[in-house]
Amino acid sequence: MKKLNAEMWDKVQYIFRNYYDGMIHCAVVYEGIVDQAVMRKAIRRVVDKIDVLHSSFIAGAIKPYWVVNDNYTDEEMLYVHDGEVSHEAMERILTNRVDYRGKLQFKATLLRNEERQRSVLCLVINHICLDGRDFIALVKTIATAYRGICADPDFDPVVKCGSRSAKQIYRDLPEELRKKAKMLYRNVSRTNIKNAFPFGEQCDDDKPHIVRATLSADKMSALKARGKADGYTVNDIYLAAYFTAAAKACGFKPDTQCEITSMLDMRRYLNDHETEGFTNLTSYMPCKLAGGVGNSFKETLEHVAEALAPHKADPLLGMAGLPLMKFGLTFPFFIATQLVKLGYSNPLFTMSNMGVLKSADFDLPEHKSLDAFFTGTIKYKPYIQIAATTFDGAATFTVCEKCTLEEKQAVRGFLDHFVAVLGDYADGKI
User: Fold this and answer.
1) Beta carbons of 111 and 117 less than 8 angstroms apart
2) pLDDT at 188
């Protein structure tokens, strides 16, 4: 029986399962009817090489670990549904969960509609295994394998299979910075701001939902151009729009303190910006508006830029707290679980910019990719997150939330307002 080490972020994601469903999701829309047999082969040839994706997570009281499984079938690589290819159909598929104790840590489904000549590849994957950046890399690798098999039935895809350890974050740092980074035991998750989205208590009527909104490529191009002229990054503008929409949804006054935490891809510290194997390598950056959002979007942007300036100037941004987390996880797992829960404050509002997607990376022979989006986990109340991806310049924003239908409508209004603010900024209206 082959076993794998449970790495730091594997353990942390497992511990955090009470805050969210622990799954990340994606959908890629294709022109035409994708060949299910070729897609199954492509997924299998990639997954066969990534042990963690066909393993079971064993949450041992002393030391958690993975047990590798090899007894899975081609049919389990991909499920096929012929019929509806709407957002509602995708949502039904994507809101399913994968059991971390199961033999596979993902579920792939191909939705197909002959009449509309559309196919949608939907993937749900356990966040314990990897983060958003490597999820995107995984789907690209599957598309590469599909293209290769079409050209050569014996095609053997190249798949990264190296270390999943979080230690690689320090690999390429200069020696002095490496020493300093390993001593950053400060707990940056602590906050005294408790303002939250106006959800009710968790209840039996809560169901998982994916709320989605888009901003066209033209609008995004205009937003970037204006941001550059004004001296703001896209993430600055996203955060300012998030604060603006949250303030309206929550009824914050202009001077109400509020905070949004952005997820960070820590591959920024690797020379080639790639992990050795498929894994999680993330951290976070809090943005606290001590003086509130202000009285206009211009003020909000200024406050965001001011709050982020010290973080952006930090040569070890995101490193603080990782040594503390690592230390806490050296204890027997049943103790470590309690230590992490006691020491970590889960942020009430989070933002995740998951990356830039290009259709060429997902295209299949005779099947052009028309759209794609990736989402974060489905949060449990009162926590909420906006996740963003861009596909050929157009942006998709999602909020994944387990809540009531009435609360889903409130989330819909919140996300629509967020996108409207971005559009108004792009148009020069605010």
Assistant:
1) no
2) 75
What six digits make up the tokens of 290? 């001590």
Q: Compute mean pLDDT per 10 residues along the chain, 430 residues long, and list them.
A: 93 90 96 97 97 96 95 93 92 95 96 96 97 97 98 96 94 95 84 87 96 97 97 97 96 93 95 95 93 94 96 94 90 91 86 96 97 96 97 98 97 98 96
The DSSP code sequence of 323-367 is HHHHHHTTS-HHHHHHHHHHH----SEEEEEEEEE-HHHH-BTTB
Strand 258-265, strand 282-289: pairing? antiparallel
Burial 341-375 (b: 16+ CB within 10 A, else e): eeebbbbbbbbbbbeebeeebbbbeebebbbbbbb
The CATH homologous superfamily to which domain 3-151 belongs is Chloramphenicol acetyltransferase-like domain (3.30.559.10)
Q: How much is the pLDDT for 346?
A: 87
Continuous segment of H or E residues that includes residue 82:
strand 79-82
The closest of 13, 262, 39 to 148, measured between CA atoms, is: 39
CB 52 within 8 A of CB 66: yes
Q: Which residues touch 222 (CB under 8 Å, ≥6 apart)?
A: 426, 427
| CATH number of the domain located at residue range(s) 166-426 in this protein | 3.30.559.30
- Domain positions in the chain are 3-151, 166-426
Position 342 scores a pLDDT of 81
Is 166-426 the same fold as 3-151?
Answer: yes
Coil/strand/helix, residue 253: coil
The 10s digit of each residue's pLDDT in 184-214 is 988 877 777 888 999 999 999 999 999 999 9
Predicted pLDDT of residue 368: 98
